[in-house]
Design brief:
The complex is a heterodimer.
Chain A lengths: L3 E5 L5 E5 L3 E8 L2 E6 L7 E6 L17 H15 L6 E3 L8 E7 L2
Parallel strand pairs in A: 1-6
Antiparallel strand pairs in A: 1-2, 3-4, 4-5, 5-7
Chain B lengths: L7 E7 L1 E6 L9 E3 L14 E4 L5 E7 L4 E7 L12 E5 L3 E8 L2 E3 L2 E3 L15 E4 L4 E8 L3 E4 L9 E7 L3 E7 L3 E6 L6 E6 L6 E8 L6 H17 L6 E3 L21 E8 L1
The chains are: A mainly beta, B mainly beta.
Chain lengths: 108, 273
């Protein structure tokens, strides 16, 4: 089932974040989160840039309880379980403690 | 139309409570030394130390001082202690630290620290308050922002303390269970299981875990993850996640039996590689 998170960025743009075929969510810095999509080829990583540093991000694990990665994981699960086939979008703008600057697709 | 059912296994991964680099050679002595650490206010016995260079894992048997931990080897690849200049992570599989500091007041059956907020730190009745200075543990019976009432009269101004709760310091990590092509033991490490996905097979999720025993087989965890993949796909909609049910080490002659029966496993790091 095709599902997307939607978010209004700090610039006022509405961005979609595809979450179908999601494998995992990690952070590679305290302001950068990556959603890895199967199969892992070109443009199969969705890169989310935060507007401020996530103080709970830990270089050791890329994820800690209460961090933005932890919160996004829970929102993804909620989106899959609550959305309907005719409504593939799940807005997270008011559900995240740190706003998002940009959403782009990358290769890694 | 190609349409997949989205399913995930939910693992309880331990939080990293301390990272650092060792500053003395603990190899052969079964110790970890870090002159920059303050272990007494972060770590309790039965914490797990992961030597990030040799990948050996240890159980903390005693918090010897602010800068030294006494260790016992766990995992099939046994170690002899953390060598000098080695990066390490520490996890807390039995307890969760709520607050640490130095008491700045004295009251009967009270722990007073005007510089913290015990309520927002999550301290609850029934949690434990360790008086590090006096080496006495009390139980919390009442909580206000700056004062804990405890069942043992031990705290005085100037005492270092650590307040903690029972239960692992962990969080949820999801791993995709749909489109799994293969679950395999890592060839070079006895505590890593890799999960590969269709269609291209390029995406791999790596599960790093720790044994409580020094005896076991990586294939046991591989089998448990395979079973969890199957079970998660069998769960009815709209249950998107399936909680990994855990695994008891089936080896006959487990060691470290005084710690959780020597049969437990702990997830340290789950990530796409």
């Amino acid at each position: 089932m095709q599902k997307f998170l939607t978010v209004t960025t700090t610039a006022g743009r509405t961005e979609i974040i595809p979450i179908y075929n999601l494998i995992s969510i990690v952070a590679t810095s305290d302001t950068l989160i990556k959603l890895n999509i199967s199969p892992g080829g070109s443009n199969d990583v969705i890169q989310v840039t935060l507007s401020a540093a996530d103080s709970l991000w830990a270089d050791a694990t890329y994820i800690q309880e209460g961090s933005m990665v932890d919160i996004l994981q829970k929102l993804v699960i909620e989106a899959f379980s609550r959305g309907t086939w005719s409504d593939p979008y799940f807005d997270i703008t008011g559900r995240i403690p740190i706003s998002i600057n940009s959403v782009v697709a990358t290769t890694s | 139309m190609l349409s997949n059912m989205e399913k995930f296994i939910n693992f309880k991964q331990l939080n990293v409570v301390k990272t650092g680099t060792s500053t003395a050679n603990g190899a052969a002595g079964l110790t970890l030394t870090d002159s920059a650490a303050l272990f007494t206010q972060l770590v309790l016995p039965h914490a797990i130390v992961w030597d990030r260079v040799t990948a050996r894992k240890y159980l903390v048997t005693a918090v010897t001082s602010d800068t030294v931990l006494a260790l016992e080897s766990i995992g099939v690849d046994t170690g002899t202690g953390v060598p000098n200049a080695t990066a390490y992570f520490i996890y807390m599989p039995e307890y969760t630290v709520r607050q640490a500091g130095t008491a700045d007041g004295t009251g009967a059956f009270q722990l007073i620290d005007s510089t913290v907020n015990f309520l927002t730190a999550g301290v609850k009745i029934g949690d434990y308050a360790l008086d590090i200075t006096a080496a006495v543990t009390a139980k919390v019976t009442a909580v206000t922002p700056t004062t804990l009432t405890v069942d043992t009269d031990t705290f005085a101004g100037g005492d270092n303390y650590l307040v903690y709760a029972s239960g692992a310091d962990d969080h949820d990590v999801i791993m995709r269970s749909a489109d799994v092509a293969d679950v395999s033991n890592a060839s070079a490490d006895t505590s890593i299981v890799n999960t590969t996905y269709e269609p291209s097979g390029t995406a791999v999720m790596k599960v790093d875990y720790a044994y409580s025993s020094t005896v076991g087989a990586n294939s046991d965890m591989r089998g448990a993850i395979q079973d969890a993949v199957t079970a998660s796909l069998q769960t009815a909609w709209p249950a998107v996640t399936y909680d990994f049910p855990g695994l008891l080490n089936p080896a006959v002659a487990v060691t470290n039996a005084t710690w959780l029966g020597g049969r437990d496993y702990f997830f340290l790091k789950i990530q796409k590689v």
